[in-house]
Amino acid sequence: MEKMNQDEMKNLVLNYLTKEYLEDVDEEITFDTPLISSGYVDSFSMISLLVFLENTFKIKIPGSKATPEAFDTINRIIALVNQYYV
Amino acid sequence: MSFNSIEFAIFLPIVFIAYWLLKNKNLRYQNILLLIASYVFYGWWDLRLLSLLIILSVSNYLIGIYINKNEIDRKRKNWMIAGLVINLGVLVIFKYFNFFIDSFIDLLSLAGYNLPRSTTKIILPVGISFYVFLSLSYILDIYKRTLNADKNIIEVLLSLGFFPIILAGPIQRPSTLIPQISQKREFNYDQTFDGLGQILWGLFVKVVIADNLALYADDFFHNYSNYSGSTLLLGAVFYTIQIYADFSGYSNMAIGVAKLFGFSLMRNFAYPYFSRDITEFWKRWHISLTTWFRDYLFLPLSFAVSWKIKGSKVFYIKTDLFIYIVASTVTWFLTGLWHGANYTYILWGMIHGLLLIVYHIQRNPRKKLFKKIGITNDHLVIRIFETIITLFVVIIAWIFFRADNISIAIKYLSNMFSSSLFTYPTIFPVDLIVIILLFIMTEWISREKLHPFQFDSNKKLNIVLRPVLISIVIWAIILWGAFKNKEFIYFHF
User: Taking CB atoms and an 8 Å limit, are B304 and A63 in contact across chains?
Assistant: First the structure.
């Protein structure tokens, strides 16, 4: 699979979250919207997202990176993925 | 010393005045004063236990320094493990030792070996679960490099023993408290009045709501075999409100007291009984504990499990759900155990874990079903129905939490769901129920605010409303306050 660019990655994550967990959210979700601290994404959604990221980008994210801060916005999620996505 | 005691009513103004008189002097003196005040506050319970707190805090301070100064990962990890062993060791010895020994003897007796029970019991230091969790987050944050080990010992000791939070939280992590401790605080009238209002509301909720309900709930739970099903249901409802009023009342007072000294603590309750589902409930109940478990146990464990899994399914279960089940089971087992050394707490934790798993399993099929039959998720009837169901399961789970043992909880439930459930309750305190209804109504009206006494000083109506409400609450405390029970439920956790 050809490597995706940053915008494609962000949009992919945004589409996944919107479809799976944010359908009922009225507010517009941007790449900088706080997802966990604002309560949009709960613990289960975080795991779901983790599995989605690992399967989509064929990566493994170590437990030491498991902080809610690293998953709080789409920009931060992609920054985390970039550390392992080659 | 407890927030609802005469001693504290004398202690607080003295510390407050001395603290702000030191304002123009060195920040260090203010912090030293707060540290001494914190140790007086804690030592008031038992001087011997104060020494445990001090020894543990100094150990954590030193371990933090050692983790920070080492660049070699292996050494950092060794110091972090030393910190975990010391903190968890203290918790296990003081809180769970008797429980483990008794459980071991029970297990052996099942196998036919009868060992004598020790009559020596280790004293449970008040607030130990709270200050050990503060210490653990200090060590783990330094290890994860999200916090630099502070070389100022006064600041570290204060962050691990600050008197508003030391007995029952909120579990304000040192990573968010130390920056406030090391910065100059300015006296602010709005913040002070807001803090006083929050203390007053917390005191009202504790002495008028929680302590009056406790008189009935204690009786219903102790003498459950004498009461009808409807009375026992009332008892379960009373306890549900009591534990919320007791703990949220304490949290409001703690946050309010911290505001008087210029500190901003995290919110611990956000009207949890108005939650629509069990995940929402846990986003609103004891927030500082649930986020602690999420960040330091649930997520690292989920990542660790995920690391071991290959493929999209495990035992025919989707990978994300499988990881969630494993991590939830461990997390909720330990969340239950955190509350106390009793199987009732463990079962209560496991019930909530199970409810959360069931919620996530049914979430997507329900969404599809609603779509298919054309029901919007936001329909008022659905919302009300789901809120009632959520409250009902929470009430049932509280019965296990409150009962002295699991057998009593089951008997309580079986007596409750008997034919006498449909009779008029044996005891029905109308005046107390009216006060509770007014309390619930006030909480509902205030649900968008941090606490019901949070007033917007720019609104003219509040100039009249504020003194009127404050007078009513003071009057209610004097008239209906039950002052015999000075302890808060969560002091024992």
Answer: yes
Any domain includes A38 = yes
Which residues of chain A are at the B interface, by a Cβ-Cβ cutoff of 8 Å?
23-24, 39, 42-44, 46-48, 50-52, 54-55, 60-69
- Between chains, do B302 and A47 touch, taking CB under 8 Å as contact? yes
B337 and B305 belong to one structural domain: yes
Task: Give the residues across from B313 on adjacent strands.
Answer: B318
Distance from C-alpha of B103 to C-alpha of B100, rounded to nearest angstrom: 5
Residue B333 CA to residue B92 CA, distance in Å, equals: 15
Residue B300 near residue A63 (C-beta atoms within 8 A): yes
**Last residue of some domain: B187, B218, B245?**
B187
Q: Residue B308 corresponds to which amino acid?
A: K
Tell me the average pLDDT across B327-345.
Answer: 94
Q: Within 13 A of B463's CA, how many CA atoms are on the CB side? A: 3
The residue-averaged pLDDT of B329-343 equals 94
Q: Which of A20, A23, A51 has the highest number of chain B CBs within 10 A, making it the mutation to test binding with B?
A: A51
Contact B19, B34 (CB under 8 A): yes
Q: For residue B11, give the nearest of B162, B163, B144 by alpha carbon.
A: B163
ipTM of the complex: 0.85
Candidates B267, B319, B335: best to mutate against A (most CBs of A within 10 A) is B319
- Give domain status of residue A27, yes or no: no
- Report the alpha-carbon distance of residue B335 to residue B188 in Å, rounded: 38
Amino acid present at B326: V
Q: For residue A45, give the CATH number of its domain.
A: 1.10.1200.10
For chain B, how many structural domains are there in total?
A: 2
Same domain, B73 and B137: yes
pLDDT of residue B24: 67
Burial B325-338 (b: 16+ CB within 10 A, else e): bbbbebbbeebbbb
Of the residues B138, B167, B187, which one is the last residue of a structural domain? B187
Asked if the structure places residue B116 within a domain, the reply is yes
B238, burial (CB in 10 Å: exposed 0-12, middle 13-18, buried 19+): buried
Torsion of CA B217, B223, B225, B228, to 10 degrees: -40
- Residue B419: other Cβ atoms inside 10 A: 8
Q: List the domain range (segments joined by +) for residue A73.
A: 6-21+32-82
Per-residue pLDDT of A29-82, as tens digits, reads: 889 888 887 878 888 888 998 889 888 888 888 877 778 888 889 999 999 998
Closest chain A CA to residue B306:
A51
Domain count, chain A: 1
- Those of residues 89-148 in B touching chain A at CB distance below 8 A are 144, 146
Does residue B1 belong to any structural domain of this protein? no
Does the distance separating the beta carbons of B327 and A47 come in below 8 Å? yes
Q: Which among B295, B323, B356 is the nearest to A47, CB-wise? A: B323
Residue B291's domain spans which residues?
191-492
Which listed residue (B222, B286, B339, B360) is catalytic? B339
Let me know if B222 is a catalytic residue.
no
- Beta strand ranges found along B299-439 (DSSP E): 313-314, 317-318
Q: Which residues pair with A37 in a beta bridge?
A: none
